[in-house]
Amino acid sequence: MTSRKVVELFYDVVSPYTWLGFEVMCRYRTVWNIDLKLRPAFLSGVMQGSGNKPPAVVPNKFKYMIHDLSHLKEYFDVSLNFPSDPFHVMFEKGSLSAMRFITAVQESEKGGDKYVEQVSRELWRRIWSEDKDITEPASLCEAALKAGLSDSEIKEILELSKSKEVKDKLKSNTQAALDYGAFGFPLLVCHVNGKQESFFGSDRFELMAHCIGEKWLGPQPEKSAAKL
């Protein structure tokens, strides 16, 4: 029997391209022979640590990004819409409190990552679909409620998100991404038969599938399978 492959997904909800990659990998976790490990990290820390600049700060890249994402949201079937003031959202407000909150969800969740996935998705929806805040405690609580967590669980997670334990865990995940060579997100690190392969971006799935011995069925594998 072929052993399952491990795929680590490093992500931050401030990145729209990473949302696309996140949804694709969540869809493929039941299609490919993989164990998907969600690794919430801090994109700003990766940018600083690698000396990279976000595409949105380069005017021509930002123009292309708007055009590109308008096509990709349909191709990936993700309800992505630009916030009214993307620079304020991405660079002034940022995502540190949101990523600490997601890390706290992960630290408190036992036996899987159901709520990590759901809370991450709800925070992406807030920032990249509904043009809502993801920095204030009330915003985090609202996202967690929609994800299915109870009021008491959310209160505990909110407190945990302020702890040194969670802050250090987020720093550790961010440093792990840098150690893998990250310069942006999404970063996918595949572990197969003792070998490691890293892939950056939401447009490398076909190559990744080839390298790990799986079949790429497009960004919506359930639709592709229905046609076979």
From TrEMBL:
<dbReference type="GO" id="GO:0005739">
    <property type="term" value="C:mitochondrion"/>
</dbReference>
<dbReference type="Pfam" id="PF01323">
    <property type="entry name" value="DSBA"/>
</dbReference>
<protein>
    <recommendedName>
        <fullName>Glutathione S-transferase kappa</fullName>
        <ecNumber>2.5.1.18</ecNumber>
    </recommendedName>
</protein>
<dbReference type="GO" id="GO:0004364">
    <property type="term" value="F:glutathione transferase activity"/>
</dbReference>
<feature type="domain" description="DSBA-like thioredoxin">
    <location>
        <begin position="6"/>
        <end position="210"/>
    </location>
</feature>
<dbReference type="InterPro" id="IPR001853">
    <property type="entry name" value="DSBA-like_thioredoxin_dom"/>
</dbReference>
<dbReference type="InterPro" id="IPR014440">
    <property type="entry name" value="HCCAis_GSTk"/>
</dbReference>
<dbReference type="InterPro" id="IPR044088">
    <property type="entry name" value="GSTK"/>
</dbReference>
<dbReference type="GO" id="GO:0005777">
    <property type="term" value="C:peroxisome"/>
</dbReference>
<keyword id="KW-0808">Transferase</keyword>
<comment type="similarity">
    <text>Belongs to the GST superfamily. Kappa family.</text>
</comment>
<feature type="active site" description="Nucleophile">
    <location>
        <position position="15"/>
    </location>
</feature>
<dbReference type="InterPro" id="IPR036249">
    <property type="entry name" value="Thioredoxin-like_sf"/>
</dbReference>
<dbReference type="InterPro" id="IPR051924">
    <property type="entry name" value="GST_Kappa/NadH"/>
</dbReference>
<dbReference type="GO" id="GO:0006749">
    <property type="term" value="P:glutathione metabolic process"/>
</dbReference>
<dbReference type="GO" id="GO:0004602">
    <property type="term" value="F:glutathione peroxidase activity"/>
</dbReference>
